[in-house]
Amino acid sequence: MPDDPNHQHHNQEEEEEEEAEAEASLWAEIKAEARQDAESEPALASYLYSTILSHPSLARSLSFHLANKLSSSTLLSTLLYDLFLNSFTSNPLLLSSAAADLRAARHRDPACSSFSHCLLNYKGFLACQAHRLSHLLWSHRRRPLALALHSRVADVFSVDIHPAARLGSGILFDHATGVVIGETAVVGNNVSILHHVTLGGTGKVGGDRHPKIGDGVLIGAGATILGNVRIGEGAKVGAGSVVLIDVPPRTTAVGNPARLVGGKEKPARHEDVPGESMDHTSFIAEWSDYII
Amino acid sequence: MPDDPNHQHHNQEEEEEEEAEAEASLWAEIKAEARQDAESEPALASYLYSTILSHPSLARSLSFHLANKLSSSTLLSTLLYDLFLNSFTSNPLLLSSAAADLRAARHRDPACSSFSHCLLNYKGFLACQAHRLSHLLWSHRRRPLALALHSRVADVFSVDIHPAARLGSGILFDHATGVVIGETAVVGNNVSILHHVTLGGTGKVGGDRHPKIGDGVLIGAGATILGNVRIGEGAKVGAGSVVLIDVPPRTTAVGNPARLVGGKEKPARHEDVPGESMDHTSFIAEWSDYII
Amino acid sequence: MPDDPNHQHHNQEEEEEEEAEAEASLWAEIKAEARQDAESEPALASYLYSTILSHPSLARSLSFHLANKLSSSTLLSTLLYDLFLNSFTSNPLLLSSAAADLRAARHRDPACSSFSHCLLNYKGFLACQAHRLSHLLWSHRRRPLALALHSRVADVFSVDIHPAARLGSGILFDHATGVVIGETAVVGNNVSILHHVTLGGTGKVGGDRHPKIGDGVLIGAGATILGNVRIGEGAKVGAGSVVLIDVPPRTTAVGNPARLVGGKEKPARHEDVPGESMDHTSFIAEWSDYII
Amino acid sequence: MPDDPNHQHHNQEEEEEEEAEAEASLWAEIKAEARQDAESEPALASYLYSTILSHPSLARSLSFHLANKLSSSTLLSTLLYDLFLNSFTSNPLLLSSAAADLRAARHRDPACSSFSHCLLNYKGFLACQAHRLSHLLWSHRRRPLALALHSRVADVFSVDIHPAARLGSGILFDHATGVVIGETAVVGNNVSILHHVTLGGTGKVGGDRHPKIGDGVLIGAGATILGNVRIGEGAKVGAGSVVLIDVPPRTTAVGNPARLVGGKEKPARHEDVPGESMDHTSFIAEWSDYII
Amino acid sequence: MPDDPNHQHHNQEEEEEEEAEAEASLWAEIKAEARQDAESEPALASYLYSTILSHPSLARSLSFHLANKLSSSTLLSTLLYDLFLNSFTSNPLLLSSAAADLRAARHRDPACSSFSHCLLNYKGFLACQAHRLSHLLWSHRRRPLALALHSRVADVFSVDIHPAARLGSGILFDHATGVVIGETAVVGNNVSILHHVTLGGTGKVGGDRHPKIGDGVLIGAGATILGNVRIGEGAKVGAGSVVLIDVPPRTTAVGNPARLVGGKEKPARHEDVPGESMDHTSFIAEWSDYII
Amino acid sequence: MPDDPNHQHHNQEEEEEEEAEAEASLWAEIKAEARQDAESEPALASYLYSTILSHPSLARSLSFHLANKLSSSTLLSTLLYDLFLNSFTSNPLLLSSAAADLRAARHRDPACSSFSHCLLNYKGFLACQAHRLSHLLWSHRRRPLALALHSRVADVFSVDIHPAARLGSGILFDHATGVVIGETAVVGNNVSILHHVTLGGTGKVGGDRHPKIGDGVLIGAGATILGNVRIGEGAKVGAGSVVLIDVPPRTTAVGNPARLVGGKEKPARHEDVPGESMDHTSFIAEWSDYII
């Protein structure tokens, strides 16, 4: 569950140490990748030094890169840099989530050839980290600032995640353009969401009105999920589907309006975790049988 | 009907005065909101002063904000500011439409917590005002300039409304990313349009080839409406629908291809104005019965 | 076939000369259009001189315009300009493809009133040329630079074409926002692709996993085509369709999931080339019969 | 006397009309020059259109040019443009002074080949106009804004004129770099001041402590005039002089410390107005006799 | 003596506490001034919030202001901000020197109406703080970075102080344009230096070759002091003087070449500290007697 | 003599080859310096890669660096880059002059620690190269463009050299702030000019009215030379001097007004070339004898 992880551990300290080590090793790998790219491509070296190689930590690199991407003539990069760096420093969870997202992209997206490529170029990754920052501001009741940041992310990346929405870690927003996630939406861990996906509300009444996405869910390109419905753990939503109903765990919903593959009564269940396996199309055979 | 409102009034002067008063009061409220935000959030105060609090009127504030958002290295902010301010000054209708749009967002979108939030952050609102400005230029046969402005809006906000398209007032573009509205489209008053909505043409033949949207219509996320079809007053188009046919007033079209809820012959009619009530999903029960 | 055109000609030199003449005449026409616009609209003259009228060739004009659009605080316009100009100079095919794309937009899009309008304002045209440049870098194994450029195009135009994807010439990306084309996709010549179209993969396994689009295909707004499927020459994909199957030449696929108009066994065949005729909706009657 | 011209006229209206006509004719000449330059030099046309040819008046052109020159990341060009344009509109004297300064440069500086050259390129001219604007703000007790503007002029042009200093019209600051003019200095009409000239104070005591320069004075490069001394009408101060004493009208002071040419008792008097004739060196013979 | 202050104190801790208190109180005063200005001048409020009022400390405000002033397209403001803030944090002496300089300007310059005015607008103050930062880098053997920063200061403020030069505290650079201070120059505490002053070398031989300026010295506008000469404590150098000789403490050197007022053998000695009293001209009477 | 060097050579080709080799070796040295600095100072690496290390030649590096320094919101860096690169390519003399200037700075200025330091940071060097470019434009009768460029140099570097002025090669402008060189001035080879130096005219009459500076001359800080006077080969002008007379070869002029050291009749002659030896002060003893 995002935002309130109730992990119990024999030894939390040990775990934190491991996490810190993992992050340090990730950062070392990112720098090694960037160094190699800088050597092979002098035209890009200046860019790689300013965004990665001149920084002592992932937190500074990300703060710098996001601040420059999201700044505008009325919202200066130095202000954003300061804000981001302070947030990363006081909330280590932000950084471990970023690290988990980097690993998710690298692991799940065959087009993601290196961590540094994701860190620098994936608008989905960057929009997600910016969302975590604006969510933190929102939680601290600095709402006007959270909304201003949200607005910059929507302009710059065409990704529109309300600051109040709660996201887990290990999230992959693939391609990301056009993603819209509403105020009361919740997204679990290890979820993969393609571009043009909407987690939308049902109307003008306030309150809890957006979808809840379980861990390990995969949502295909252009899918629209509306209302306070529940997409169960490990479920899959086909590309272009319009979902207005709950989807049980480990089942697949497809079509407009979306129906469960295998039928409402006894839907087919899959064994893998689609948010991680990224299998978009294995249901086709079954679907074809069912529909056509 | 947008662009040629044939209102008859006992006393037009009185009405204009009322409108001016309403606008002044709206502007006062916006400044009060911004002032409170500036006090509670010093990091945002500079932004709020430059965009709102330093300006004597909504027209100047909007001109400043849009000019800075839409400027580029080859289209300077001072040029745009001048252009916008002159347009607002010589066309009071532009400002009253902006005011109506602000009220629409505040009234219909539960995530819209204040007028200033909409004015500063809603790309749908800003793209709509920029469209009104480019439409004015188009009407005055300053087409190359209208198209250059249109292009900036499409780049910056990912909202693509042809300068020739005619829009009413009280329009809400919610989230707005990916909206495409073609050259001969007409949109009535008090319409709500979600993101990824297309009001598209039918091919490469010129002439009147885009949809006509009646007053009070609600068009759900990702809906595609193609051709010179008529979406009747108070009708509703479900998310993800592909509409190639006329939709009668107060009825609902859903699906791909879209069909009328309740059937072609005797479609179900609703009483509310969906463009204002923003009820996206009440047809689900009926739809399910009909389709699944 | 893009990228390896095996044209045989009696006289290649003659053909090249003709091509050069055609490009020179196109450039002359563009300048004439811009000159006329500059005269009629002084407010735009500075923009028109800097983007078109001050340049001696289309290659310089495009390099300048793209460099300014795609530059950022960490990727300077001078660096991009240099890169683009060198690419255009050493690869004449880039320029002839750009010329073919300009003609395609002018010929197929009734809203495209002049070549200069397309050159300056069509994000689809500009994103496509930027893709050709990043594809060239990719081919020369300058991948980090290709990906950095790709990322800028995705940010600035909300058009996401993987540098490895292969595109033919005479391509029209109409409106273009939200287009996503994956790593192993191939797009033929004279194809027209509307906004929000996805040519996506099937999952996290690498290898050849994206659609192959034949010459003369028309893909409607919001269509999603997934997997290594083949859309045959002159085929048409309806707006909002979700295509997971091969589509035979000169047939039409519509719906979610997409089916062939006329039925799987004996699909209806059309005579025109929809990628050029841009006929989006003539199948409606038939479709209606078939489905509703 | 600057700032309070007590001119009596038979018919003030007539005079104002003449002035307006003269300004209109000057503006027409500037545009004609710029148009010719734009035609002969396409690389500069964009610059000439944005700074001169797209503007309907000298006031707008100057406001635009100064706003872009003086803006910074924390002081936006739109804010400055608005401020300058409002000032020019409400204080016609600002514009007639600018016109007089343009004529002075054109008339007195053999390197000044056209009005537009001075308007665009002379940092002395631009710094002087910016001073007039900051002086106006100072007079209206908007001192923090006046000082912020003053600071920008000192950074951008290396010309440091305190906002409280009073300047006449028809002023030529030739080359201008390094000019420093203190708070209580007064400069008359038709004065020519070369670069590195200081009109400085005498210490840390406030009050009236800076030089008073009469009409028609010429002050050579690098001259330093300190304290509340009076440089009489039509006097001349040689380059590099350090003046700590009053200089009578129509006499010449040279040297460090400066002495009157011809001697203190019976200084040589010249007939011309050196501020207009710009004769820097005719005193050499006499000086040589006197000193060497 | 700058750079190695050998102060002995009964209680250093106490002193440091006092210094911290004094700085806190200075910062509180600066914020109060800025707040009052922001209230009285809305057009400047955005600027005042971004530069002063949004910052929690003088160190952050100065880092922000300098970073934005000194940044360029190839040296980003975020990089400079980071560098400056780290320097201020790790070297408290930098901040106490800045505070002393602010007090010096406020106390000695009658045109300096407030601390915030000096902090924001005095190029001499800002150039001096930037020098302290580049000097720190130089001391830490980060010479290429020190020189890059030095170069930006020379471009932006026209103040050219070699990073190796050592400056005391309580320095006032009044007007500052054109000041040049060479590599081996040393400037004591409480020194006042006017614009165009040169502390230059004697030729192309390296080694200790620039002037040594004692505490409390006043150097008038345009004075040139060349070579490894010693300007004694409390001495005064007249405006425009060219000094190639030692100047004993509490004496005054004037003229080109400079001679001691009162004669080489028994020069006149003054009682005050001219660097603080800023008395530029009291020697005139005597000088006149001596020379003319 | 600048601008028309009438060198006779046994074998010009050979010489050109040697020159090309010398330039290539200089560029290699510059890159080696920059590479070492980038390695030792990661914070500067991005800057060094963008300005030097990413470029294949000195011409491109200089074009890039100058274009970014001199660009403004109305004069874009891409335009300037294009202009500069074309100029360097078509006029090899520009580059060999730049190389000679780099060597002059490195050889004569003890504070110049490396070629790359001069290339990147010396405003005198950069202003001089920009002048050569604007002089070339002037010679080709592209005067408005030459003047626009001249104006940018005067703003950015506070160095004001009229485009028509003719400069030799091997020029060192040390510190450079405030240098003013008039329209008909001529400066020979291997000249060293300190900051605040003026080569000015005599009044408002056009024609040949500025100084002619012979080869190997040294002009001290703040010297003002006025009128069409001749400063002979190898002569020296003392700091702060005001020169209105011819100065014979190998003599020294000092003072205000300047007199020849050793007397008008039989001035002292020195053996060295002061423009290269940079001996500013050896005349002091003699001067003192002569004057005081």
UniProtKB/TrEMBL annotation, chains A, B, C, D, E, F:
Composition bias, Basic and acidic residues: 1-12, 262-276
Database matches in CDD domains: LbH_SAT
GO CC annotations, alphabetized: cytoplasm
Biased composition (Acidic residues): 13-22
Region annotation (Disordered) ranges: 1-25, 256-276
Family annotation (Gene3D superfamilies): Hexapeptide repeat proteins, serine acetyltransferase, domain 1
Gene Ontology biological-process annotations: cysteine biosynthetic process from serine
SMART domains: SATase_N
GO molecular function: serine O-acetyltransferase activity
Record carries keyword RNA-binding: no
Enzyme Commission number: 2.3.1.30
Pathway stated in the Swiss-Prot or TrEMBL entry: Amino-acid biosynthesis; L-cysteine biosynthesis; L-cysteine from L-serine: step 1/2
Residue span, Serine acetyltransferase N-terminal domain: 26-130
Enzyme class: transferase
SUPFAM superfamilies, per the entry: Trimeric LpxA-like enzymes
Keyword Amino-acid biosynthesis: yes
A Pfam family of this chain: SATase_N
Keywords: Acyltransferase, Amino-acid biosynthesis, Transferase
InterPro entries the record matches: Hexapep, Hexapep_transf_CS, LbH_SAT, Ser_AcTrfase_N, Ser_AcTrfase_N_sf, Ser_O-AcTrfase, Serine_acetyltransferase, Trimer_LpxA-like_sf
Family: Belongs to the transferase hexapeptide repeat family.
Protein name according to UniProt: serine O-acetyltransferase
